[in-house]
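Problem 12. The chain below contains 293 residues. Write out its predicted structure in token notation.
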Amino acid sequence: MKSYKSGFVNIIGKPNVGKSTLMNAMIGEKLSVITPKAQTTRHRILGFLSGDSYQIIFSDTPGVLEPHYKLHESMMKVIDEALYDADLVLLMTTTDEEFDNEKIINYLKEKEIPGLLLINKVDQSDQDKVNQSIKKWEPVFGLENIIPISATLNFNIDLLKEKITDKLPEGEPYYDPEELTDRPLRFFVAEMIRAKILNFYHKEVPYSVEVAIEEYKEEENIDKIRAFIFVARESQKMIIIGKQGKAIKKLGTEARKEIESFVGKKVFLDLSVKVSKDWRNDLNQLKRFGYDL
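Solution.
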């Protein structure tokens, strides 16, 4: 009888390297927000891939960066926790991005945590660069543990799944095999709204925004949602709203469409903008928004 394997597979890398795209590709569902902007992921998001003989618990984490706010410190704490409880670490990089965090690299060496080095976005690179990257990382991970991939094009994703299941410890499933994530519906709705803000607005505004679902009422034919968009300054509030409210109307329309697709029924979405001065350094507000400090 084939043994059952299960474990926590945590994805780590710099911002905008493709961690969220990879987890979504592995799970087959859009659980993590994906935008062209860096620092999109702020929380640790678990995604479950369950088969007849395995359960892989993927963990999408924020990008590794130098903290400038309490918010960033919380994000870096998430990465520390992801290293600590991992059964397997997927360290993701690209040929154009140098992962140079010695603390994390040394931790992986000293703790002897099983790891795979993923060179992502190879479809945007050339073979010489890929070979150079493999050569650089071979002394750290070993050639057999380095996999060039394209999370966007699903290149080598099946090979990666095989490598992961080979390295998982034996054990029972941690979660119901029918479940895809540990996060509630409200979380994903807030993330969908924030993703639209990241796409629609520019400069510092998207990074000064947090979304909180104030009310979520599920009715037979429609879900009624009231959400607050928090910004750090009054000027940012005016940008979000736009002239004659046109910007927030467009935001609400596009967010509502995506939420309706996600929940599979009609949605009424009410958006309001509030100013919470310097919320990224406000411990009470950060806790309210679900950050671990």
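Discussion. The mean pLDDT is 86. Students who got a different answer should revisit the alignment rule from Section 12.3.
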